[in-house]
Amino acid sequence: MTRRAWLVVAGIVVLAGPSGARSVFTDVFPPEEFAARRGRVMDLVGDGVAILQGSPEPPAEAPFRQNNQFFYLTGVEAPRAIVVIDGRSRQTTLYLADHARRARAMGPVLLPGDEAARLAGVHAALPRAAFGDALAAILHDRRTIYTPFRPEVRGSGSAGDATGFARANREDPWDGRPSREEAFVATIRARDAGVEIRDLDPILDELRVTKSAREIAVIREATKITGDAIVEVMREARPGLFEHELQAVAEYVFKKRGAQGPAYFALIATGRNTIYTHYHANTARLADGDLVQYDYAPDYKYYVSDITRVFPANGTFTPWQRELYGVYLRLYEAIVTSMRPRVSPHEIVSEASGKMGGIMRGYRFTDPKIQAAAQAFTDRYARLAMGEKDQPRALGHAIGIEVHDVGRPTATLEPGQIFTIEPAMRIEEDSLGIRLEDVFLVTETGVENLSAWVPIEMDDIERTMRERGISERRD
What we know:
This protein has helices at 31-45, 68-74, 100-106, 114-120, 131-140, 159-171, 180-191, 201-209, 213-236, 243-256, 319-336, 345-362, 368-386, 458-465, 470-473, and strands at 8-9, 12-17, 20-25, 49-53, 82-86, 91-96, 124-127, 145-147, 197-199, 261-262, 267-270, 291-295, 298-300, 303-304, 308-312, 397-398, 418-421, 424-427, 432-435, 438-442, 447-449. The protein has 475 residues and is an alpha+beta fold.
């Protein structure tokens, strides 16, 4: 997404400055997408009122990015905006800060008024200073207020990250500050100690579990960009390069294709670094004979993807690597081929476990360490299949606006859900890990692998790695 404006409202870039106002259409969601989401919130809060704060402006020379919950309901990218979603009147009011002075230095901003309300698809867009009177009226009427309790999440983050960071600050004896959300709730209570304030996050989290057709289309494109980056990384990889050089290749693809930034830090591990599932130092040099584990994706129009591939640094799997990767891939595929809509994760794991047993009985091992690692992997799924207390609630993690997206796992896989699996197999004594990851969309008739086209078979990986990389093609 081009960062030429302070605001993207429902897919419309609004430019307002000294020279007047104009608007152009982009390919982000139209206003009715956000209006439908707010309508569901209104249904769920009933006579109550939902109030959300937008993110503040960045404390550095950095692009503004809206927090995920605010964006999900409004599509608005404007610093310090506030939105009030009234379940009784079924109206939405946007309160906008005055950034006219910033506009003269940093570019156009959204200003309060009828045009902003029309473009955002809300009842009114008022000055932020008017929010105080609106809140006073809500408190006078003894309305229940719903607002997010969880710390806001922006780019490169997930709810668990933000929650952990806020908790660490709160418990730090030399810090002790509350989160912005806690401070907001405290400010409201200071005006009326008897007000009932409820957490809005569970409502939004449940809505975000099932993706709309438009959301699926954006995630599909984010997955395409991620896969294209992986292909370019495979083409470029060779012994002697640093892990961060492969990161640079991916980031070129991300930015070239319009990404705002990364979905998470680059997990690019070579050799002994592969044992760490979230290794991200990216300072090691690829050596001849290494395996490389690559896991990196973009933040594209506020949605993400998450794909992992493993490939040889020199472009050719050794016989030992073929044995290791080969058995892991077959065990991984046992899970993939067991997925079906409206089936529980436990049923899927049970079916996959049976397939894994057959794979292990028929696989020809030459290295006891590989066999032991594969057996440990298989045994883990056998325990999950047999155990009642340890039944899996999910096969992997959901993705959407966040890479570890919100919402409780449902009892069965339901259409509109998107998730990944990333089971790891390890040889601890060799500091070696191997992990693949794909993106799956549950449909009415099956489970579609959105990243199935990204090279995963050894022959396809080697063929891709023989192709010219970006640096060669630009010579």
